[in-house]
């Protein structure tokens, strides 16, 4: 139990206020530690904000100017778009040609030789929710299977065997066949017959394109294969597309196929050749390069701003007691200046900026293209020194370079190599950014880091330990003040009592 505190009863002094005032003076070192801790937390958060922007810029580079797909975007002109369509897939070179469509590829089909009807009323179509056992007169506890072979994209049969409980509905059986095999099955309630189409077009040179076998085939009133169905008058063969491409008569199993990195889709039969040609999609490629330049300029503007931001040493972080005495707007204006300059002249960021500039302006060695510097494609540094390395684009020159050889620009940005000088500009930048991110993380960690794993975190733990020890010391000091004032009050009270006693004795 602590000693009882007596607050000015005998002396008439405001002991409580006097001790508070004394403790304010005692707390000054603690307030400074708290301000130092707050400033380090701001610094840590500012470092992490820079790292976030570096990470986002690195990803933007990877998804933009470093991707080959950026430079393979092409504008394709087709003389008859209703007959064919042409799309670039991965061709880095321009392409052109002509194609005549003599016949479209078609899928094999077949439909039932007999009707499947309601077991209770042969005049009605079978119900889609009817169980297979009831529909086919089989015990519900039995299982039956069907094996489906269907032609794939290469014109080869692929096989799948499915087993059904007779408790399965008619619709459930059809859904499973459609989802797991190479055919699409359909029951027509008007004709009361099954219809089947191969999912892939084209001809199987070795036989039918659709084959069925198993317990359920006879119940579905289907022939064993589409060739047999054709013979019986209820089916069709799968046919290959018949085309003449650049003068060569040839066939394809599908109406969509690739040649030399671009994709052709046949839409209609033609009576004369359809021509097509490609050229770089200058606008789309330009858009990606402009985004890279804009993102780079925003990043260096942010980093330069942090490096040169003024530090207001007279504006220290506010303590909790200081904030209590201020208006919200005053706090906001104060902290705006107190937070300024946390990364001023930071060596890691200064080094990163210098390295990034070197990455961009040093020519690439050992490439297959004559394009080895940004200036050759219309990108150069601003002549305004205040803009600190901002990139400026000459759009006309850049468009000309894109039209001439987009692959050369891809190499300029993305070329790999054994040394830094042999690597593309964007590849160099990403390596510099990665090194910078690692250095900043050693200083400031990331949101998932524990304080012991980075420098500022360890400093924060250390100052918190100092603050905790100082708090304990303040408690002891406050107790000492109270003991001293209480002793004084007791002494005054005793003296007052003695004085009153003597006065009483003299008055007798």
Layout of helices and strands:
Elements: H1 15-63, H2 68-71, E1 74-78, E2 84-88, E3 96-103, E4 109-111, E5 117-118, E6 121-125, H3 132-136, E7 143-151, E8 157-165, H4 170-180, E9 183-188, E10 193-198, E11 210-213, H5 226-231, E12 235-236, E13 241-245, E14 248-252, E15 256-259, E16 262-266, E17 274-280, H6 282-308, H7 320-324, H8 328-338, H9 347-361, E18 379-381, E19 391-393, H10 395-404, H11 406-414, H12 425-444, H13 455-506
Antiparallel strand pairs: 1-17, 2-16, 3-13, 3-17, 4-10, 4-12, 5-6, 7-8, 7-11, 9-10, 13-14, 15-16, 18-19
Helix pairs in contact: 1-6, 1-12, 1-13, 6-10, 9-12, 10-11
User: Tally the helices: what do you get?
Assistant: 13
Coarse shape? elongated
Q: Total strand count, please?
A: 19
Mean pLDDT: 91
Share of residues in strands: 15-25%
Which class best fits the helix and strand makeup?
A: alpha+beta
Low-pLDDT runs: none
Rg, nearest Å: 42 Å
Distance between the termini: 44 Å
Largest beta sheet, briefly?
A: 5 strands, antiparallel
User: How many domain modules?
Assistant: 3
Q: Can you list the strand order of the major beta sheet?
A: 1-17-3-13-14
Question: What percent of residues adopt helix (DSSP H or I)?
Answer: 40-55%
